[in-house]
Amino acid sequence: MGFIVIRPFNKFKIGRTCLVSYGNNNNRVYFSTRKHTSHLYGIQLFVETMAFQEQDHTTTACASIATWSALQIAGKLFQRKIPSPSAVTKNALSTNLSGSKFPNSGLTGEQICTAIIANGLSTYKSPIKTHKNLLALVYSYGKAGLPIICGLSIYKKKNNKAITSTRILHAVTINGYKLDTKIPKEVFSKYELRLNSSRIKKLYAHDDQLCPFARLEMQSTYIQIGKQSVKYLTTEWPNSESNNGESHEKRVAIIENIYIPLHPNMRIHYPDVYETILQFMNYVFETSKGWFEILKEAEWDIYLKDLNKFKQDILKHPGTIFNVHRSEVVNTHFPKYIWVVGIKFEQSTAYELIFDTTESRDRTGFLYFISHSETYKVFDDLIQKYFS
Questions:
Q1: What is the pTM of this model?
Q2: Cβ–Cβ contacts within 10 Å for residue 155, how many?
Q3: What percent of the chain is predicted at pLDDT more than 70?
């Protein structure tokens, strides 16, 4: 279901296209979609999706299309004008003084950031060093409905090695994920928490070579790339050399960097919150080793949340709050977006710690905490003492 715009070109005919997703079920979540409208004989129709478009190799390449697909979502969230794909390219190259902006063969990471900033937003950018880091960033920002632009390398594979001579640079926009029901096999260490986001086993992305919800599947094994052995994802890729009629083939995908469009007032980011929680855990270890043994078994659920949706969840769900009255939570003034840190035991949330997104980065940004369990109520004093 949906609609497709056919452009009057000999090649690259697929224009703006809105198709329904596979649906949010079976632990599948499409976090970065919005309502698109179309008309058929005067009848208004709606599609909840991320709009798709194919690059035309003249005004847009894959990075321009990935940025456009992200800005059509972020623009709605933060009340900004949504640019056309060609306008994204013009904005990205606005600092390029070397001549014509078209035809365009692609954008650098800095040019992606320039295009986002030109739209009145800021950019959180981060290199990706591990799968755990990637999944934590996708999950934490995705919970607020934010699209994640990814710069990635695509390789052909032979045995357990990537063929480096086949490397293709590409850009996609992640808009969904699928969770595993199993608890991640992680053990708390001094430098790492057990994260709920590590349950993600599959990502979905707008890929202008494929579709608006292309699959990127996490692999548990390692692959050799040059002298490095790294974990990887697999994705479909057009196969121009096929002898068996197959139009696509599986290829290795390595996500190198991510770029997330944000409101300019968002100054505290995921790594800041993560580091604060690690410091809190070290404090618990130094002051109360008995409670530390309990807390290190917790699963941490760290994510960005729209304040109104957070308050709606507080009012909707019948779960008990022990340390404050429900009305106090919904009447307290917080920033429009907040960081929520859930502390879970056996998949049940015992605490929610609330952090600011607009404070300066040299402060923790802690605002509030909510206790959902009498069993672990003893941690109230520890939390209050550390964050007061």
A1: 0.91
A2: 21
A3: 90
